[in-house]
Write a structure and sequence with these properties.
By secondary structure, the chain is an all-alpha fold. It is built from 23 helices and four strands.
Amino acid sequence: MSRYSSARLIALLAMTPPFSTTFCSPLETSTDPVSAARQFVLQHDSMIRPLEKAMNLAWWNANTTGRDEDFHAKEEAQNKIDAALADPARFAELKRTREILKKKAGIDPLLERQIEVLHLQYLEKQVDPSLLKAMAARSNAVEKAFNVYRARVDGKEMSDSEVRKVLKASRDSVLLRKVWEASKAVGVAVESDLKELVCLRNQAAKQLGFKNFHAMMLELNEQKQESVIALFDEIDELTGEPFRTMKAEIDAKLATAHGISPASLRPWHYQDPFFQESPSIYQTDLDSAFKEADILQLCRQFYGSIGLPIDDVIARSDLYEKPGKSPHAFCTDIDREGDVRVLANIVPNERWMSTMLHELGHAVYSSKNIPQSMPYVLRSEAHILTTEGIAMLFERFSSKAVWLLAHGVKIADSKAFEDTAVRMRRNRLLIFAAWCQVMLRFEKSMYEKPEQDLNQLWWDLVEKYQLLKRPEGRSAPDFASKIHIVSAPAYYHNYLMGQLFASQLHATISSEVLKVAPAAASYDGHPKIGEFLKLRVFAPGRSLPWNDLTRFATGAELNAKAFAAEIGR
């Protein structure tokens, strides 16, 4: 059980002094382990804070421009952070202090937690400095290739939104295949660098005593690989049968739409390059509601109505397509002092409505709402999965007719829209669960055995979990066309765990704040929801490990019960 009650945590936050940049004496001047720990934290903050801010600004510039010089600056900024965290003398002192604190009673839990978090951060960098630089250079090169890549079909360059528009609207199987294959061609461009990066990452992990990079990254993120796999096995059991039933319905409708048999369907018929989203197969098209909608204004209204305004975030953000810019969507906290920004490429459709609600969900779970009294080291989300969970909690409203009507969006037939949306939301959960199985198990196996035929592995998993048929005769590194494998390695499983967190949190908000059943819960105009989230999710920052935070917020450890209810299990 967590040692933190609600009252205890609030008291701790109130007593925590603001961050100070006062320089401290060397650690060796203090024989008291508590004083040594406090000195180490202050020295770390004064050294790392400006480096992290510079790195985040460089990342922002590189991803919004795609310029060589900005990617070079990003790489240099990363190297400076790596060098600071790689200092073996400082790590030895940190490790010694941590071991002593673990044996003492009555230690300030916020100080103890800072030392634990710093130990994980420094541990990752205790490898050959030249190896750290090689990984940064290779990762930077591959990320840049993704940013500047645009699919080309019949000599015409296509943006990501144009690719998706064709995949959704066209009924020409020949064109669909050409566009789908063009979207995957970035994999050819980065395959060699990615494979080298995988080997470099494994080399670093083994230097630190881990069996491979995937196992290391889970450990450094306070997860156990075997526990995550066991959870995914449980989710596979939970979702496998309803996914197969749903997939058969999708196949029948897509086959009819394309004038082919279900057996003739291939990946390019499923409207999304990776089949990670639900195809539009019903009579009502959800995108129709957004043709004239102001997506940013809808976000402003919604977040403001629940007591979590985001106008300042929008003002700092880069939100529309342009050459060289990353075609994806991200949220970043530049300085942990409230400079939070979103990178997006908005077009007027339901997918981008959902995406903006998602990214702004990350934004409200940041230093905008984590108290500045929280120590800098802990002034971030509890875990990857908890911030993804908050983002997923909010993204779900993009397809709710009641929500759209409340914000003035015109819907021709609200009942037909909602009937379709309910089915689409369930489809999305099932489809995304299957997709996450592919990503987790692919990355785990890739790092365990990088010399294997990775494209064979990729399609074996796609066929097993997503029930898609691989294209006959295709020999291409399709696995390498997914940017997360490069820029966010060993991360993707947290999306599905975030879905569990979102479902569990929604059930708690519905019962404790709104006093209604989860299916009937509407958040609009309820600032108490913002108050609840600020207290029960945002305020602790990273002072609690992720499952302690889940228990603090919902009363139970992370589980699939609420998620199962949402998919009718």
